[in-house]
Amino acid sequence: MPDTKKFMENLSGTGMCIGVLTSGGDAQGMNAAVRAVVRMGIYVGAKVYFIHEGYQGMVDGGDNIKEASWESVSSMLQVGGTVIGSARCKDFRTHEGRLRAALNLVQRGITNLCVIGGDGSLTGANLFREEWSGLLDELVQSGEISEEASQIHSVLHIVGMVGSIDNDFCGTDMTIGTDSALHRIIEVVDAIMTTAQSHQRTFVLEVMGRHCGYLALVSALACGADWVLIPEMPPNDGWEEQMCHKLSENRADKKRLNIIIVAEGAIDQSNKPITTELIKDLVVRCLGFDTRVTILGHVQRGGTPSAFDRILASRMGVEAVLALLEASPGTPACVVSLCGNQAVRVPLMECVQMTQEVQKAMDEKQFEKAVRLRGRSFENNLNTYKLLSNHQMDSELPHSSFNVAVLNVGAPAAGMNAAVRSAVRVGITEGHTMFAVSDGFEGFVKGQIKEIKWGDVGGWTGQGGSLLGTKRTLPAKHIDKIAEQMSIHNINALLVIGGFEAYLGLMELQAARSKHAEFCVPMVMVPATVSNNIPGSDLSIGADTALNAITDTCDRIKQSASGTKRRVFIIETMGGYCGYLATVGALAAGADAAYIYEEPFDIRDLQSNVEHLTEKMKTSIQRGLVIRNENSSENYTTDFIYQLYSEEGKGVFDCRKNVLGHMQQGGSPSPFDRNFGTKISAKAMQWISKKLKESYREDEGRVFVNTEDSACLLGMRRRALVFQPVIQLKDETDFVHRIPKEQWWLRLRPLMKILAKYKTSYDVSDSGQLEHIVHLKTKDTSAT
């Protein structure tokens, strides 16, 4: 079979000049994108220029356009906003302004632009590109540039990255800054919920987003808000009465607080604005509830970028440089974007036109069309919220007579409770009777099984750990007792939420079907583990929260050495034999090296890393960061690496070590884990409902199914959530080390090394290819 890999060594940027600018509103993660563009550009041999203050700096020229060095982007990964400045520029909207900008670029030989901004900034960049040849002709005629210079710089290449907290740009699942803004919102909501609970208050929160309701919708999903108002789906006439009725019902169910989230662009069916004050007055007038308004404002733009945004921005920045390297005169301006878990390139103007169509549909009151145009991810979020918030009375619910049990297995992971809440509420909505099993399979054996109702899972979304209780016990030794409990409680389906033990447990239950008919029922597993080591899924619930814990701690550790002598920190992360946390944490924290089991290393590699770091310490950086996965090597322990670096770095730097331990498993789940857990669990329950209907035998009055595809793992694969029979995943599993044989994130390791100034081979065969937005819309990106 021919080798299809294409390495970056074939793509040289020698003689190439790249300008990077941030424009429009700032967003957390922009600095990570700038850093990646600068370092990747220098790595391939190009000159990279900062264009300060966005398009205004391009028009004004002078010191606003400066060549960047490797060191000039050090220590900016964790900084919010944009250190090269951003401004809205009236001059660039004029022909004269764009003419001055073209002159400033040609004088420095810049014919490649990386533009980080929103739809307005990217539209301006495309117009600039279309006018480029005409602008050069004018400059030649006025004598400001020579004919030769015009020929040399005849083509302007544009690559865009969307930096906007609003996530209002079509063609990408997530824009740079959105996840960080969600972190700020959820931090505030979690804090408000404690005070609201104390006083039995109703809080009305306004979040940003302009004409896009993404932040409001996802934050409502992530905190379990009682009501949400977004511009894409205005409430039906009479919504005021419905909302007050729901708030009143929730209070009657002994819920001590109400949360209402309002997007700043929220409107009613007549396109009239719905404001927070209007809602407050309504609640006070109709219900008499003590009600407060909180407008989050620019808090959402501030703070450090989340781990997700740092990784997204770093991947997009590198992808943008690759796109410029591969561009030809006929290549259209493109946007580097995210589809599922994959980088793609989409024609810039297709994205802009689709984004404008959304607003047009809303203006014409075609709201369902507007939701569809926002993309599958937005639509899925909305449908899931409706499913989970629509609490019907028992008399109104369909009754299926099916009993479904849900349990947590393995180590706790943040987001497990959100997944359980989602499963319980979707199950009840589908008409099933839901049962909760305490303490995993161990609780199953002891009969710790009880019915769980809608209200029992209220407020679970933001809780860390596992409220059901979870144990690592496997079912094989207790299979007879578990079968007995399945029979006693007439369990017709199982939803297992957990890590590698859950995966092994599901296999053991399936293997026991030949002896126990009780296990011939639909069974599905949802991956939840900080280690992210489950075959069949690129991501697991809990991994994002752990990554944020690692990133935040590394930021603090590095800051502790600020202003002191040169220092290197050796950090140990969890993960068992899986190096996901170490590798992706290293990328997010800007580490100099990451040692993992999947990439064997020896004393020569360690020595090389020490020498590399010593050289960097002598010339530029003051702080170094080395991350080691806990089981990366039996002999090269954290203590060994610490002592080696300490000895070899004498006279240049000193060393400190830190074992992060179980703090990676603790804390409140991140917005991503809450949202991911909620949606993946809802999808699992809908699959269970479908399988129950298919496998019910009316003549026997029971559920019976014994096919391979009736015991599945639901995982995220590249762009989609996919159900995979667990028996088919055996060949993909390294059972000794409890990891998948192939892991997608290993492709990020060369990127991490490049950004840390190592020379390495970078496989670009999997880099984003230019795709049309119409094709992207047909892909299932519901997991993002």
Automatic annotation (TrEMBL):
This is ATP-dependent 6-phosphofructokinase. Allosterically activated by ADP, AMP, or fructose 2,6-bisphosphate, and allosterically inhibited by ATP or citrate. Residues 403-784 are annotated as: C-terminal regulatory PFK domain 2. InterPro entries: 6-Pfructokinase_euk, ATP_PFK, PFK_vert-type, Phosphofructokinase_CS, Phosphofructokinase_dom, PKF_sf. Its cofactor is Mg(2+). Residues 1-390 are annotated as: N-terminal catalytic PFK domain 1. Belongs to the phosphofructokinase type A (PFKA) family. ATP-dependent PFK group I subfamily. Eukaryotic two domain clade 'E' sub-subfamily. Belongs to the phosphofructokinase type A (PFKA) family. ATP-dependent PFK group I subfamily. Eukaryotic two domain clade "E" sub-subfamily. PROSITE patterns: PHOSPHOFRUCTOKINASE. The lineage of its organism: Eukaryota, Metazoa, Chordata, Craniata, Vertebrata. It is an enzyme of class 2 (transferase). Pathway: Carbohydrate degradation; glycolysis; D-glyceraldehyde 3-phosphate and glycerone phosphate from D-glucose: step 3/4. NCBIfam families: 6PF1K_euk. Substrate binds at S164, I165, D166, R201, M208, G209, R210, E264, R292, H298, V299, Q300, R301. The keyword Ubl conjugation does not apply. Catalyzes the phosphorylation of D-fructose 6-phosphate to fructose 1,6-bisphosphate by ATP, the first committing step of glycolysis.
